[in-house]
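Consider the tokenized backbone below.
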């Protein structure tokens, strides 16, 4: 239980870290004054990608790449923003588009896991609540279902790690290679991307620890 508590603290720290680092670098304008949308477009154009729509959406850090519909979605602040944070996030999402184009194996595996992950994400709260209200607690079939759900989540998040790290690597290379930012501006971009990556690490560690906890409960 102490270990699970530490995992929760780590997860909270990761969320606070990404918010703090992003907010800091969102205040630092790039010298080139290129917007996030323009950066994403340039990175994809260099890779020969012309069939991906770039769209904006409301919300904070709601940026993502949709491989099914081939849409690169940037939050409004990153779509129009010219900050180091905006450029880093936009190029990162463009990195996912490049992965999709070249058939990056870990992205393909992650996409294949999405349907099962969506199912267990919806089922897990029901299983946990049912176990809480049952007189016997989370045992038997309910415990086995919880273990299955966390196993799927942990594996999905494990596969997500190399996908995210690779996209960030591509982002850094392309931003400098295209002259969108200067090398001495890279620390702000790198810090933003590393902070975001920490949240994925925290999600994986959290799911893994809960899985190990449930497996230990099953043996007792």
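A designed sequence for it:
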């Amino acid at each position: 239980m102490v270990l699970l508590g530490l995992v929760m603290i780590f997860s909270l720290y990761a969320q606070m870290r990404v918010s703090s680092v992003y907010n800091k670098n969102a205040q630092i304008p790039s010298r080139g004054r290129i917007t996030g949308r323009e950066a994403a477009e340039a990175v994809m154009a260099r890779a020969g990608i012309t069939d991906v729509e770039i769209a904006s959406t409301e919300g904070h850090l709601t940026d993502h790449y949709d491989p099914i519909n081939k849409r690169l979605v940037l939050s409004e602040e990153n779509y129009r923003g010219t900050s180091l944070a905006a450029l880093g996030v936009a190029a990162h999402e463009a990195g996912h588009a490049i992965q999709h184009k070249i058939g990056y194996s870990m992205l393909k595996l992650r996409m294949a896991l999405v349907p099962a992950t969506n199912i267990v994400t919806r089922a897990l709260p029901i299983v946990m609540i049912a176990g809480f209200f049952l007189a016997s607690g989370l045992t038997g079939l309910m415990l086995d279902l919880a273990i299955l759900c966390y196993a799927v989540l942990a594996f999905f998040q494990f596969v997500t790690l190399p996908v995210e790290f690779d996209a960030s690597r591509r982002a850094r290379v392309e931003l400098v290679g295209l002259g969108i930012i200067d090398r001495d501006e890279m620390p702000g971009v790198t810090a933003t991307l590393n902070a975001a990556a920490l949240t994925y690490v925290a999600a994986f560690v959290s799911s893994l620890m809960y899985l190990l906890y449930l497996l230990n409960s099953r043996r007792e």
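Residues 140-177 form the longest helix (38 residues).
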